[in-house]
Amino acid sequence: QVQLVESGGGLVEPGGSLRLSCAASGSIFRIYAMGWYRQAPGQQRELIAVRTTTGYTNYADSVKGRFTISRDNAKNTVYLQMNSLKPEDTAVYYCNKEPPNSDWGQGTQVTVSS
User: Which pLDDT tens digit goes with each residue over 28-64?
Assistant: First the structure.
């Protein structure tokens, strides 16, 4: 069973930055592409960033140019650097392999508000 532990969320003003971390146990981290997902209130969870084991990255149009996904294979950790945050980025953020399995973590809340 895989455990995913997200951290780094919080309250930030529009235009601010946050760096999210996701520590993954188990073997999936070294084998699969990893993604960051988010779920805003009343909306479905969506994939916003993915990074493969070979370094290929892809982003949702809504975050492209503002968010950067990276991974540290030695630490089994994936990061999401979020810059120029907007109120519409407010959501609970999760990581998982891409495509995801059922082992979701608790997520980390990001609130962008003045």
Answer: 677 889 999 999 999 999 999 999 989 999 999 999 9
Distances (CA, A) of 3 to 38, 51, 58, 85, 86: 18, 19, 24, 28, 30
* CB-based contact 14:4 (threshold 8 Å): no
- 3-state SS record for the chain: CCCEEEECCEEECCCCCEEEEEEECCCHHHHCCEEEEEECCCCCCEEEEEECCCCCEEECCCCCCCEEEEEEHHHCEEEEEECCCCHHHCEEEEEEECCCCCCCCCCEEEEECC
